[in-house]
Amino acid sequence: MILLLNQFTRNIYRKSSKAFSGDTLTADLCLAKA
User: 30 lies in a domain?
Assistant: First the structure.
């Protein structure tokens, strides 16, 4: 589920600078939950 949301978010922000910050934030959350 989290992976699907991550992919969905990346598709939305693929053409914007938010993609980088979004991936970083998601990575931090995944590491924290892992």
Answer: yes
Burial of 21 by CB count in 10 Å (0-12 exposed, 13-18 middle, 19+ buried)?
A: exposed
Q: What is the pLDDT of residues 2-27, one digit of tens each?
A: 667 777 777 776 665 554 555 676 76
Cut 0.85: pTM above it: no
Residue 12 placed within a domain: no
CA distances (Å), 1 to each of 8, 15, 16, 17, 30, in order? Answer: 10, 23, 23, 24, 12
| Overall domain count for the chain | 1
